[in-house]
Amino acid sequence: METIAEPTTETAPFAGGRLLIVDDDAAFGQRLARAMEKRGFVTEVAESAYDAAVLADRNPPDYAVVDMRLGDGNGLDVVERLRRKKPDAKAVILTGYGNIATAVTAVKLGAVDYLSKPADADDVFAALTRESADHPAPPENPMSADRVRWEHIQRVYEMCDRNVSETARRLNMHRRTLQRILAKRAPR
């Protein structure tokens, strides 16, 4: 279960702005909405690409936080539609399945940032309110290359319904090598 941080004392009050949160995980969407309301946003939550399109067409928001993978579509389509309706809107993509190609596509379609789940509400707030000339600070404790590799393997393994043979085929690695990797603890 993902947790949403309360506003820190360092967070300055934010005056206004309508925020659309699009995530098919209803509980996460509601927690993020409450956290962002405490930071000064007026929020609306949509659980599907269709609902987000209806809300964006009716009254385009100033800001959006959009999950990459939705039950009925792709978050990139939501960002693109929002940018057509309101070109100055700021959108952030959230995803548990990040890769460089989709991050580049998200930015080309108008997203101001691309954050991995679980994302902290302070990180989402910072991404939405950051001036375009500001660059995010590098992470304090970035994942090691071994950890990134292990996370990727785990993600593909889960996507393949924990089928070792299918995962090995998709990762283009020997099945026994994959079994040894899966048997080990996660690297730091």
Automatic annotation (TrEMBL):
Lineage from the top down? Bacteria, Pseudomonadati, Pseudomonadota, Alphaproteobacteria, Hyphomicrobiales
Q: Which GO terms describe its cellular component?
A: cytosol; protein-DNA complex
Q: What is this protein called?
A: ActR/PrrA/RegA family redox response regulator transcription factor
Species for this entry: Acuticoccus mangrovi
**Record-annotated Response regulatory domain positions:** 18-132
Q: Which GO terms describe its biological process?
A: regulation of DNA-templated transcription
4-aspartylphosphate occurs at: D67
User: Which positions are tagged coiled coil?
Assistant: none
Query: What InterPro entries does UniProt report for this protein, alphabetically?
Result: ActR_PrrA_rreg, CheY-like_superfamily, Sig_transdc_resp-reg_receiver, WalR-like
